[in-house]
Amino acid sequence: MSDETKVPSKSLSLEDFRITPVSGGIAPTGPIAARAAIAPQDPLGSLAGLRGTWRGTGFNQIWRPFHGSQDRFLELNETTEVLQFVEIPGDIPNRGLLQEDITLHGLTYLQMINDANVVQNGQPAGIHIEPGIWLSIPLTTNPQDPETVARLANIPHGTSFVAQGIAISSNGTPTFPPVSITPFTIAPPNTLIPFPETNLDTATTFRTPPGDIPNVTQAMLDNPNVVLAAGSAGKNINSVITLQISTTDLNPPTSGGGTANIAFLQGTEGGPNAQSVQVDATFWIEEFLDDQGNTKSQLQYSQRVLLNFNGLSWPHVSVATLLKD
């Protein structure tokens, strides 16, 4: 067997893997090199607190397009979740033409969400699985952006997205701004179009049956972020790193990003079937003291995805409160 056709003696594992630049080049100089020399010891920067495995509960809401007597079905789920982050070993070089090269660092993640009440084949019903990557991006001169973070996600319904944004450090319990699940017109002025399914007192076959959502309240439909407020209530939260990301520009930064969908979601005449057009999310990495004075880590998030179909943008909101193992 020639050298060109030899195979590795063992399978590559994460323990063996490390990203290493393999091509030649000139080392960065000037301001970016100077910043690298004084960069924080942890290469992940604001993302460092994500390392590890997180478990907890949450709430999921989505307007599903319905092929039948009306165009919509309101699905609601009480959820359990496992979210795992693994650091990518090594520097990730990004080659620059308009400015010097930059170095990224990041983590892979796998998100697994089950329905907390619905059982299928003796197991909790899985409703979402998502592999992806979080990246820590240094300050850049072209574009003129501060340090940013980005999330690269793949959704098994047939959507991929890149959402970029900023990290902010603060102290004390964070505030969770209200979020609405009311659909609105795609064209400006984006007029809100309420539907009766959002009122739990209104009986309907076009909403998840009450037996599958025993703990869902009207307050949760009015503002899903009340679930996050309940998750942080009574906790002595000392410090918070807030990651705010979007597939649209946040100005600043001049965010990269966007969504891509399979052909079925985009549809053709009279479409789309259900096209994901925008993702906005906020993650709060929190440290708090438990009753014994031990420091614990908590991760909370609120995410809104806009699904376009039948002339409206339909919010799909997911929230959760997770504790690190």
Describe this structure in words.
The chain has 4 helices and 15 strands. The protein is mostly beta strands and 325 residues long. The protein has one domain: Lipocalin. A 10-stranded antiparallel barrel has the order 1-2-4-5-8-9-11-13-14-15. Strands 6-7 form a two-stranded antiparallel sheet. The longest helix is centred in the first third of the chain and has 8 residues, at 30-37. Residues 1-5 and 31-39 have low confidence and may be disordered.
Number of strands: 15
User: What strand line-up does the widest sheet have?
Assistant: 1-2-4-5-8-9-11-13-14-15
Helix and strand sequence:
HEEEEEEEEEEHHEEHEEE
CATH-defined topology: Lipocalin
Looking at CATH, the homologous superfamily is Calycin beta-barrel core domain
User: What does the largest sheet look like?
Assistant: 10 strands, antiparallel, barrel
Throw out a few tags for this protein:
single chain; 325 residues; mainly beta; ten-stranded antiparallel β-barrel; 4 helices
Secondary structure layout:
Layout: H1 30-37, E1 52-65, E2 72-87, E3 92-94, E4 102-120, E5 123-137, E6 140-141, E7 144-145, E8 148-155, E9 159-171, E10 184-185, H2 218-222, H3 226-232, E11 236-246, E12 257-261, H4 263-266, E13 275-289, E14 295-309, E15 312-324
Antiparallel strand pairs: 1-2, 1-15, 2-4, 3-4, 4-5, 5-8, 6-7, 8-9, 9-11, 9-12, 10-15, 11-13, 13-14, 14-15
Kindly summarize this structure in a few lines.
The protein contains four helices and 15 strands.
